[in-house]
Request: fold
Amino acid sequence: MDEITRERLFEPFFTTKEMGMIRGTGLGLASVYGIVKGHQGAINVQSERGKGATFNIYFPASFKEVICEPQPKKITKLGRETILLADDEANITEVIGAMIEELGYQLLTAGSGEEAVDVYLANSGRIDLVIMDMIMPGLSGGAAIDAIRTENPEARIILSSGYSLDGEAQEILSRGGNISFIQKPFELTDLSQKIREALDS
Reply:
């Protein structure tokens, strides 16, 4: 792979596959990265175009007893409300937007914080939930949320980020109100449950 692709390899929803019937979601390597980091590990990749790639994964040694806990069955929850999705990455908007529509919801999109506020103000009577990316150029997700809340203090919002729930994300949530957090990348079932939690709260 080329250097630009290698640098973006672990970004949530980043994919090099062509548009069409079969395409990637960009979740695979991002999920791997999250799992490795979650276990205090490290992952790196060396790649040369036309020759292949080598991934090296390192984990700290552990002598703890392995405890297998049964995992609860995940249920995909559907709905019919209207959701505004705001993200400055077009491929992310496309993938998450397709997920939202697959769950039965009506979809509105915005490619920036400023556009998100404009779309919300123009459709405030019919938007039931906003899914807002935290980091965007210009008006950030946090500032856009503040502007939306000025119009409607009861607005239901899910803050979305590829970073963990700390720093700026935690500060935004600490302001209170109908706001929750989902970390990218996420699966369809996780998104469906988070949306229903936000709408039904």
